[in-house]
Amino acid sequence: MRSIFYHSVVPRRDPADYYSMRSVDAAQFTQQVRWLARHRIVLSLAEVVELRQAGRALPRRAVHLSFDDGFHNNVVAAEILATYRVPWTLFALTNSVLDGYRPWYIRLADALAPARHAVGSATTRFDLSRYEDKNRLASLIKQRVLDAPFSSHLSVLDDELGRWKLELPAETRWKFLDIHQLRQLNAAGVEIGGHTATHPNLLRCTEDELRNEIVGSADRLAAALGRAVIAFSYPDGRLDARVRDIVAERFTLAMATHRPPLCDDIFAMRRWSVGSLAADLPRALHPMSGILLRARAMRTVIKHRVKSILRARNGISHPHAR
């Protein structure tokens, strides 16, 4: 089975908003869902669990489709998926759908969206009127946040926003579903899974933080829904043995990304992101997609190293250097 996932569906992607550019246009998503309904067997997670528990093989052309986070625009996706009777799972961020919490990566997206200024020094320069530079700076800030201990995620983000002269707007451009909408989706047959409380780097959490983010958040979500929450997806696909074992205590299965090693671990099921380009769905479904993605990543690494060498020869440091 090939598992694929999305984050958001928007009426039209906005080139000025780096986070919107990672979404899928509604028209394109409709085409993808129509194709899946005609050419693949789309299974719910309940069907996957039932088949595995019965010791039966999954259909060769089986696909599972899910969304992470629980953005408000997922109601658009829900309407499209319902039209073609395609089952799906929504892995919801508990504190966002229950409390309106704005996680760190959405704070970053909100701060970057209106930015148009140039920032940095002679050797570290970002022109934030350009999508490419916004994306580069977002990647840099994200890495610094996720490298910090979980308890410092927000303070490190605040420091980074100040460093790059970015202001956090009072209102977010990326609203989440509320519990009433989540219950409506669940009543309509959408499976609701856990995705932590606040979307941290789980590898940087203490034992108590892990149990709150994984177990406590799922229990809280289940109580609000009035139904069991049996599935989980790891934020950014980040897991190790310690994280995986806590997940296994609470859930029936868990979704990672394509990165875990090839194995049949039901608590680290491989999942492939479908991005904003038309070619992303066939690439995600391609049987050799893992090799293709690794080759693509290697090309990117080589390209960056060549650029670094050329900059060094010209006396210019890497643009991401401090």
Layout: helices, strands, pairs:
Elements: E1 2-6, E2 9-10, E3 24-25, H1 26-39, E4 41-42, H2 45-53, E5 62-69, H3 74-83, E6 89-92, H4 94-99, H5 104-112, E7 118-120, E8 125-127, H6 131-147, H7 153-163, H8 179-187, E9 191-194, H9 207-225, E10 231-233, H10 241-250, E11 253-255, E12 271-273, H11 280-285, H12 289-313
Parallel strand pairs: 1-5, 1-12, 2-3, 4-5, 5-6, 6-9, 10-11
Antiparallel strand pairs: 7-8
Helix pairs in contact: 1-3, 5-6, 6-7, 9-10
Question: What are the defining features of this structure?
Answer:
single chain, 322 residues, alpha/beta, six-stranded parallel beta sheet, two-stranded parallel sheet, 12 strands, globular, disordered C terminus
In short:
By secondary structure, the chain is an alpha/beta fold. The protein is 45% helix and 13% strand. The protein is globular.
